[in-house]
Structures are given as C-alpha cells and as structure tokens.
Amino acid sequence: MQTYQLMATAASGIEALVNRELKDLGYQTKTENGRVRFTGTMADVAKTNLWLRTADRIKIIVGEFDARDFDTLYEQTKALPWEEYLPLDAEFPVAGRSSHHSQLHHVPTVQSITKKAIVERLSSVYHRRTRLSETGDKYPLEVAIDKDHVLLTLDTTGDSLFKRGYRVAKGAAPMKENMAAALVMLAHWFPDNPFVDPTCGSGTIPIEAALIGHNIAPGINRGFVFDAWSNLTPANLLDDAKDEADSLADYDIELDITGYDIDQKMVEIAQQNARAAGLSQSVTFKQLAAKDWHTDKINGVIVANPPYGERLSDQASVRELYRDMGKIYQQMPTWSKYILTADLEFETYYGAPATKKRKLYNGVLRTDLFQYWGKKTTIVISMRISMRRR
Asked: How far apart are CA 67 and CA 248, in angstroms?
C-alpha cells in the first residue's frame, strides 16, 4: 500500500493534543501551527480519521513549493502527479486560504489558477480535449499559501471530525465535539474518578468524557469522504478499521459522569444526544443550578464551559455564577476544576487565582482555560485478619 505525507489539522492551541494522540497511535510527528504532520498509508488515513478526538481533518499532502507570482503557482501545480490521486471523472472543488504575508493573497485568483493547472494536467494525461466532466466522487482539494509557501492538500475526511454523528439536538451556543474532547484530555481525568460538568448545555463535554472512558473511537458512527475513492482506498478498508476499533472498546467499565444544567430543556437535549451516542447508561443528566450542587465524593474532576457574559446585559448574572462556583469549589480540595471562559476577569469573581491558565480558541473566540488542581486523597482499605492458633 502506498505511503503518503499526511497531516492532521487542528484549532490554534490544540496542536499539542493532536500530536500526543498521534504519538499514542504509534506515529512519528512534526508539529506546526495549526497542523501535525505524519506519514502513512490509506489504512492509516482510516485509523486516524476514526481515532483522533481533537483534530479537525486528515489531509494528504499532494505537493508544496514556494511561489511569489501566478506563473510559478500555475507551473508548479501543473507539474504535480494529480492523475495519481484524481480519476478522470473526479469532482475536485478547490478551496483556498492565503495569508497577508504572501505575494499571492487574492484567494479567488489563487483558487482559479490552481484549478486551471490541475485541469490542464489531467487533460493532458487522460488525453481529453474537452472539459472534464467532474461527475464522479468528490475529492476536496485545498491550496493554502503562507509566507509565499504553497501547500496543496487532498481532504480525506469530508465533514469535519468534530461531527461525530450523535448530536441530534443542540442549544444556542454548542461547543464543538473536538474542543470538548480537548478539555477532557487537558483535565487528565481517569475513568475511575467522578466527572462533573455543572453547566452541561447539550451534553457535549460529558458525552466526550464517556467516549474516552469507554475507549470508543469518536468516528465509529460516521462516514468519511475517502471511503468512496475506489482508485485509492481498498475495498472494506473502513469497515475493517471500524471492526478493529469496536473490538478495543470497553463497554463494561462503570463510569461516574454527570452533567447538570439550570435549564430543563437543555437537560432533555443532552439526554437525547447521549441516547444517540449509545451512552445513556454511562452519563447522567439532571436539572440543577450550579449554586445548588454539592457532593461528598472525592478526587473528582469538574470541566465547565459556563456562559461568558459577552453581552453587557448578561455580564452581572454570569459573574454571579462565577462567585457561586468559587464558594462551592474551594471547599472541595481533592477535586480538580477546569473552567473555560472568555472573561479574563474570571479569577477575580471566582475568588482565587488559577493554578495554571491556557489560551484556547473556541471557534474564533479567544478563551482561557482556568485550571485549579486538586490535592488527591489516597484511599486506603485495611483488613484485619485474625488467625486462631492451633
């Protein structure tokens, strides 16, 4: 099976997590801004699309070069072996991205010239004098230019990896599944400890925690665009990869995962999503205000994405929520707390400085993950055995 240069794309601030996931899967990697490079076959394309929880897409790198003028872009693109990737009838839309640090920064023109060069190459190889039909399977391409460096890629994923397939309903501002998985991973939660999301909304964070706890591949219930590429993808490759992934899941482990929300409607939406994910027995959702929650459990993890109070009219009530969290959570020294918000004044209202802060982007919005590390308590079970002397 042919080996390709591959890359997993990621949101800013998440690259290190994607890198760690790839290393855990056995790949040698190179981390760059917004992506992690690695090599692999189409079997690896299937594996990484199935298993990566925090990435956006898996792409094949067709070629890269420097270009400061449109003639160079055209000729260098045309010189690439597109016939090794695209069959005669392939539909190949070309998306584009370009930075203002590049000479070629007008994206529509970059797309048009790239497309024209690929058409010219395929027409010459396939001996076509008329336009290519593009009536076959879709092969999504992208031309990205940064600091005059051109990167041409073929997207193997299709719909972004955050679309797991279980979110059948959502609230007003849902968190993407891969961001939710990133928060769970950053919290260093172990499945034998309690996990709580006190502002769960549509339930994404607890559901992602359950997928991790059961070692369920996040892409197990969805399809990918590469599966239709008969010229590149062996028959049954994705089905076989899913069967292997399913065999690695631990469906029997008991998890203590709970999500709370003040809005009963959101609780019902979260329950619906958990059922769609097949995890209704693994996650409990309840209607409860954050200020009314308490627990006697120890060594737990709280991961929360509370409202940010971006509108001035909402700010007072949101900051009152932060105060309530501080009053409750500071009385729980064995619990670790991870709270994501765009309000940089969070620590003031929470009432304590964070152990650590991490900048993350929730979509295009700059947020900070405020981390409060707990002091874990070791549970010692002693047993006295008395033996009667004979």
From this structure: 46
